[in-house]
């Protein structure tokens, strides 16, 4: 019994000695948060992962293209941080850079309650996409191929002009194949997928001077008749026709609407396409565009399988 007491006393004293030897930690000290530079470097690596055929590396705040072109992540006049982007999302869209393009988190899978002014994927650096897919209509056209949309259901009724760059045509073909299987099990979904209106169409986004991603042949709009688009809803509710996006007040934005089943969205996201239905404010539920940089870091979806 005495031996046990002596042993326990030794253990207690040893632990107290260890505590006394530990350097004091101030309760006022705050955990370190990543600097903007660390945050940018961690984020920018997704470009290398998402576009390995085009982007060689990220160093010294620049993307290094395989032809040697250096493209800065930040650009003069763009917003410098995630906080600034959240405060003025419209400016981030109108004056984009490669940091802003990936700064807003896109979450694959079911929708969750979104916050206004955070439409993941709507910030696009036109210079980046023109460099990759072509900076003129003719250059983009030279890389297009024809894809017949869901031919088991529609035969050759819907030919789509799709870019071969980044194997977007192959990835969209996988979407088409998987959606056919889905519709065999759930024929009620066919109505959402028929009558795709376009893949390639060189144009600006309605109500802006920014390029539409349809201009690059890596975007598809499914059936308009069973989709919702914020601008059309705004025009209908306010009985206006010609309006600029930047002139619309946030509190006047129409309420979010969607009819597209999640299973359809999941198939597109699995191949590296983001969905315009995740744009909680500027919703565009017919719209799917190939943007693997927003999916690869958190979800690993680049459409390689």
Task: Name some characteristics of this structure.
305 residues, alpha+beta, 3-stranded antiparallel β-sheet, 37% helix, disordered N terminus
Mean pLDDT: 83
The percent of residues in helical segments reads: 25-40%
Distance between the termini: 68 Å
Strand content bin: 5-15%
Structural class, from helix and strand content? Answer: alpha+beta
Number of strands: 8
* Total domain count: 1
Q: Mind describing the biggest β-sheet?
A: 3 strands, antiparallel
The outline comes out as: globular
What would your notes on this structure say?
With 305 residues, the protein is α+β, with helices and mostly antiparallel strands. It has one domain (36-299). 37% of the residues lie in helices and 10% in strands. A hairpin with a 2-residue loop joins strand 1 and strand 2 (62-65). The radius of gyration is 25 Å and the shape is globular.
